[in-house]
Structures are given as structure tokens and as C-alpha cells.
Amino acid sequence: MKAKDLTLLIVPAMLLSCSSKQEKISYPETPTVDSTDVYFGTRVSDPYRWLENDTSAATAAWVQAQNRVTADYLSHIPFRRDLAKRFGEVYNYEKASAPFKRHGKYYFFKNDGLQNQSVLYVQDALDAEPRVFFDPNRLSDDGTVALTGIQFSKDGRHLAYTVSRSGSDWSEIYVMDVQTGKLLGDSLRWVKFGGPAWKGDGFYYSAYDAPDEGKAYSNINENHKVYYHKLGTPQATDRLVYQNPKYPKRFYMASTDDDETCLFLFESGEKRGNAIYVKDLRRPSASFVPMATDMDYSYAPVEVVDGKIYLLTNYGAPRYRLMVADLARPAVENWRELVPQADAVLASAQLIGGKLYLNYNKDVADHPCIYTLDGKKVQDVQLPSLGSVGFSGSKDDDECFFSFSSFTVPGTVYRYFADSNTYEKFYAPKTVFDPEAYVTEQVFYPSKDSTLIPMFLTYRKGLERDGSNPVLLYGYGGFGITLPPSFSASRIPFLEQGGIYAQANLRGGSEYGDEWHVAGTKMQKQNVFDDFIAAAQYLIDHRYTCSGKLAIQGGSNGGLLVGACMTQRPDLFQVAVPQVGVMDMLRYHKFTIGWNWASDYGTSADSPEMFEYLKGYSPLHNLKPGTHYPATLVTTADHDDRVVPAHSFKFAATLQACNDGDNPTLIRIDSKAGHGAGKPVGKQIEEQTDIYSFIMYNLGMTWRK
Asked: Which of 118, 556, 599, 604 is an active site residue?
């Protein structure tokens, strides 16, 4: 059977009725095809392969039919309107970033509450009246065009900015005259993962060749190139700065320092880290010189001062350290250690006002401190409480701000005074809930191999641990990404209704450095799932909840996490929400930039052992007919070119065919949306209303006024 013949076989589905409890769902029929792959002599069928064709009429019809079923189910949840109303209220508060100074003026982002995209403001002084500098909401009627980056030129005359449409990773670059606010004629397309980085009257950026028609969101991305664009010239005449046809699947990105003395070239995509090269821009005839070429480690320039390059790296230091290189002799063997590795993870470093601001992550909470340029510690910065911090300031300006947040404290901006090591509140949002009504605790629980895993729990004060509380357990566990304490308005209604939000800091992240990351990769990936399952068991054993009141959620690599855990322990969870998940571990590397994840996952083509390991936990390949699976809401989006929607399509179709029992197995496919970044507030509220109403309804929660 050909995919083009499948459209007529997709039957619209209907709910039989809805009272206080919904009846069994009739799902769209999803046809199968005879598709088989052979891995090292093992045949693996892929009956829903046709759903990988995201531009076919058959797939479009399937998406529409599935969305109708999901929308109908969600519309019958009794308290969905109340929840939607409350989401509108908790999202509707003014949000502002820490200000940053450029060329004598202050800039900051602000959202009045329900604006789809935050607006960039400018003011001549801190006490001057702010005025709108750039409003991304004017780029589209529905807010689906997002501002994804800004870079001022060194002379302050121009602003290069990037936009993304419908959540795609593809970017476009435009240039604005700062004084007049008018656009220049420059317009660059097919930009991805790099730029703009200013040098003189132009900038460097990274791009791919234009993809084939209709394949922009699914075809594999190859042959990344670095270009230089001179203002006022067409993109077709941009100068090719670097390409490496020998490695078509690697990334190549460029950046310049504030003084435009160095051009850094980053090479990544093969191992966990990156290689780094540097060109001295003060010498026109200079070529790129290797600084470090071992992609097992990460190398990130912090700033360049008087020919000295300050770098943050985990080379020779799993918990990271600060090094100094000389531009005249930049190879790694000539680097000097400035701040050695500590017990905590050195998560970031900035140069502000002539001092180094180092932020250490200790047991997942931020602990910033200040050092001199010669590596001497000046002072610790005591934060308001347990949480996360981000500093804002430039290397030559003494003014400094930081934004602080935690699970119940939205982003609050403070002005910091380094000389006295004090700070004052500069901006605090006004919310419609009481942060003092909740408490956050951190617990440490043993995983299957006895490794202690940290987990944050947030809930209303006075909660009784009687084993009956609804819990939402969230995790990620991959790619060295740390899950810090952070605020999300979407969690508030769940907490208000008596829920517990649990965030587990699994192996695979960088909570304890590179070793913690590696312990959750490739043929140790099962550690991540064991950590998450152990978190659920801890919550049950310590009577926070029971399996009938436990929901799990995660996105992207976290969607893989949820998919693997619900297939390994379907009895342990009542609800599962895998979002934009990597569900087909045998074919993930065949789409867009999926090949780049091999450093964490390995691929099915690597070896018989790696194939068997991946097949052993791949969510798609471990769904078993006749199994009672949790109530499941799979989410994805039509413009997701990071984790293509085919992962979720095939998983949802297989789950619907395999599930035994009355638990709903639904898929929600968003339109004009991508992997998540840049999603307009309106779409965020719609999505969170659907997700949380599904979770709360299937945990047996009712709405309390």
C-alpha cells in the first residue's frame, strides 16, 4: 500500500458520550505498511513509516483526525474552562529582564503580561522614561514570529537581529539603523546555529544551503558554512569564511570578542564538546590557529583582555575551571590555569566591570562569587534564597544587575554594588498568587545502583503526607543540561489545587559535572531511567503520593525519558505526558540534526551491541500489545525541525494499537509551532491548559474554587 492511498482509510473518531466520567474513546484508524529495516541481521518492522512524510496528504488527514479526537476529549473535562481562566490570570503579570547597557543607553525586555512576545525597550538613563525600541509582536498577527537574538555593532550604529517563524530552528537575519529604527535592505535566510558576530561594517554568521522544496523541516542538515556579510550587499555575494566538506554533519560557528580583535571558530557535532580555533583580526593575513581540537571537552571563551583569552573549560577538570591563553601562543598546551576546579560545578563566567563573576552550581543551586583578573577571590555573593541567578553587565562598565528566580519566585531584578557586596531590589513583578503559601524542599534519594539523586519538591504549606496527593514528576537527564530551580506560571494552578511539583536532577545532566553527564549516556543511558523510576518510588514510599496519583512529564530528551519509563514501568504511573520526544531510537539520526545526538545516545549503526541497547529502551519499540498503559497525552508540533513530529506520530499510533484498558492515549499536534522556543504566550496558555487539564482530570482531581 502506498502512502498516497492512505488518506481515505483514516476514519474520523467520536466520543460516545461524556458525563462525569468519559466513555471509551474511538480512535482514528491508522493504516500500516510493510516496512522493515535490518540491523546486523535483525529485522525490525516499522509499520507506521508513512507518517515520517510530514508533507503528505495522508499524514495531514491523520493529524486532523487525531486532533479532533483530542480536542473533543479535552473539551469535556468539567473544569477545563476554570483552569483556562486561571492560567490567563497567573500568566498576566508584568515581566522584565535585567537591563543591559550599550553605547550609553539602557535596554531591557518587558512583557506587559499577555503579550505574545516580549518587547525590547530603551532608556537614556535608569530613571528616564522607557520607550519601545523593537516590538516583535508587529512581525506577525498571531505572535508566531519570534525575536531570537540581537547584536549591536561595535560603533553602536546598527543592530543585527534574528527571527524565527513558527518555532523553527531556521533563522533570518535583518539589520536596523539604531538611531532611526528603520530597516536596512539586508535580509539573510537559511541561517541556523550561529551569528551574527560583528566585525567592522558587517558580521559573520552560519548557514546551510537552501533545502529542497517541502523538506525544510525534516531533511538531514549537512554542510554547515560560516560566511561574512557586508552591510548593503545581497546574501548571494557573502564571502565564504569556512567550510569543511570532509565532515558534512559537523557544526561550524563563529564569534568575535567585544573589541573585535579575535574571531573564534567552533567545531562540534561529533563528541560531547567542541574544538576551537582563533584568528587574530588585527592582522589581515592571519589564518585560523588551533587552540584545542579534542571534541571530548568544552571550550568557551569568556572575554579577551590585552591579548589574553579567558576560557571556561572542563578540559582536565570535570567540574570546570577557568584558564587563560595568550593570543600569540593560543594552543592548549600553553594555557595557564587561573581558577582551578572546585567541589561545586563552575557553571558560568562573565567579565563585568573589570572583575570575573563566576557562578558555581552546588547541589543544583547557584552560588556566585567574584574574582580578580589574576585569579584571586574577592567575595561570595549571597543570594536572597535557594534559586537561580543571571548577571548582566559589560567588561568596562561598573554597573551590574542580576535576575533571581526560584520555583515560587518569578524573575526579580536586583542592582548589585560590587564594592560593598550589597544589592537592592530594582524590579519585582506583581503576581496574583501568594508565594509565601508554598515551600520548596530538596531531598536526596537512592537510585537502583545506590547513587544519590537530588530532587526538589514544591507544595502548599501544611500538606499532609498521607499517600494521596497528586504529584507531577518532571525530568530531563541528558546532554549535560542542568535543571535548576526556576519559575513557571503554568505550575501555579496545579499547586493551588493541592498538587506537588517534583523535579528530579537525573544523571545525564551536568548537576555534578561531566562525570554526572557521562554516567547517563550511550550504554549507561538506563541509569537515567532508573533514576526517574526511583524518584517515583521514593515519592510513593515516603507517602507523598501513590501510583494512582502520579503523573510524569518531560520534553525532547525528557520526552524520551517519559516514553522509556512508561514502557518499562507502566504500572508505576497514572499519567504520562511525553512532549516533543525522541521516541524512535533506531532512526533518530536520520532527520534534521538528529545525528548530533549520537554523542549522548550512540546510533543503531554503530555496532550490534549499541543497536541492541538502543532497541532495548527505545519507547517506540517497547510498546507491547495488551498492556495497560498510563493515561497518555503525546504533544508535538508541525514546525518542529529539532525532534521531527514523526517520532510522536509513530509512538502515538503504536500506543493506541497496543494499549489495553480505558486510559486515554491521545496526541496533540500544534500548528505554526516548533520545539518550544519562541512560542507566543497565547499558544503557551492554550497548550498548558490542555496538558494540565488532562493531567489533573486523569489524576482524579476536581476544581476547588
From this structure: 556
Task: Cell numbers for 83, please give them.
Answer: 483552569
Cα–Cα–Cα angle for 314, 315, 316, nearest 5°? 105
| Marked catalytic residue, from 158, 589, 639, 675 | 675
Is the CATH number of domain 3-88+433-698 3.30.1540.10?
no
Grid-cell match 519559575, residue found: 487
- The pLDDT score that the predictor gives to residue 637 is 87
Is this structure's pTM higher than 0.90? yes
Rg for the chain, CA atoms, rounded: 25
**Alpha helices (runs of H) in 267-312, residue ranges in sequence order:** none
Give the residue among 185, 295, 267 at the shortest CA–CA distance from 231: 185
The DSSP symbol for 118 reads: P
Q: Omega of the bond prior to 429 within 30 degrees of 0, cis?
A: no
The pLDDT tens digits of the residues spanning 637-649 come to: 877 677 899 999 9
Active site residue 675: yes
Q: Which long-range contacts (CB under 8 A, 24 or more apart) does 420-426 make?
A: 421/379, 421/381, 423/381, 426/98, 426/401
Distance, in Å, from the CA atom of 528 to the CA atom of 509, rounded to the nearest integer, reads 9
Q: In this predicted model, what pLDDT tens digit does every residue of 142-152 receive, in sequence order?
A: 888 989 999 99
Write down how long the chain is: 705
Per-residue pLDDT tens for 117-166? 999 999 999 999 999 999 999 999 988 898 999 999 999 999 999 999 98
